[in-house]
Amino acid sequence: MRRIPIEAVREGQVIAKNIYDENGYMLLARGTSLTEYIIDKLKRVGYLSLFIDDGFGDVPREEAVDERKVIALQKATKSIFKQPCRSISAAQMKQLSNLVDMIIEELVNATVETADDILQLNQVDDETFTHSVNVMMLTILMGKKIYGLRSAKMKKLAMGALLHDYGKLFIPPHVLKKKGALSTEEYEEVKNHTLKGFDYLKTVEMLEPTVRIVALEHHERYDGTGYPQQKAGDSIHEFSAITSLCDVYEALTADRVYRKGFPVNEAYEYLSGAGGTHFDYRWVKLFLSLIYPYPTGTQVLLSNDLIGKVVNIIDPYRLRPVVELENQYVLDLTKHHQITVQQVIY
């Protein structure tokens, strides 16, 4: 299974994940063979990429989590983010809490191998809500590795991640959705979403302090270059540090109205390079274990100008895949150190 831009999808390719509408009704089932008509319809409703099973790599796994529950959580999150009163009622908080519990239960019991197993595609007008839920699910995968399957910390981490961007409700939409570069004043206004989110969440009695702190600190950086308080190292709560890492990865790889998501390999290399500076290397190393930068089936251009398809990954050398060239010669980049992947073609 691999994620490819909608422009690279071809008739006859097979969908690797079920696709649902915003109400949780299935539009296309996993295993559906795509036609030009279906591809065009998906483009029209705002999908910029799809998960495809093109016969390379593993047989698609069963859903790691019931996507209808994920969509229900997206809807609940969206209703909160869209309401004009900018407040969370006790009933809404209870609904969020119950849905998060169900998703945690499924993810801790599922055999999930990579981040792509649980990430949801977003339509271009739903990116904020999909982003919040995706970040939450990535933190749950991290939490499984850090805290174990039944830790009480898992729920607090997940809730903090789900509400990390709540402060964006208080930022004018024309600033948040601006496609061009932000002015200095606009950028400062956007940065204030951390303080505004934290200040509001302090008024929600059902939330624990460690949940609220994520809204405040998710833009802090390990080396002290973040905001709003320029915290560094262990002074940043671990829930915030974990969420910030998942937040950046999801933001890099997700499609946006103004750009397609970056390839997984580029996000992998960015995070790898940011370990020890922007992010605690302990968490970076753990997070990267959830990512395969070149999923099997990925078409790549090598530094020797040859084109091939990734047919195997040899851990821990995930940036140096085994590639089958167009002439069917197999090139193991772990043994040919002078050759690198220059570009992902898809």
Describe what this molecule looks like in 3D.
This protein is α+β, with helices and mostly antiparallel strands. The chain folds into 3 domains: 2-53, Molybdopterin biosynthesis moea protein, domain 2; 67-288, Hypothetical protein af1432 (Orthogonal Bundle); 299-344. It is built from 12 helices and 10 strands. A 5-stranded antiparallel beta sheet has the order 9-8-7-6-10, with no helix packed on it. Strands 1-5-2 form a 3-stranded antiparallel beta sheet, with no helix packed on it. Strands 3-4 form a two-stranded antiparallel ribbon. It is globular. The model is unreliable at 57-61 (pLDDT under 50).
Structural key phrases:
346 residues; alpha+beta; Molybdopterin biosynthesis moea protein, domain 2; Hypothetical protein af1432; 5-stranded antiparallel β-sheet; 3-stranded antiparallel β-sheet; 12 helices
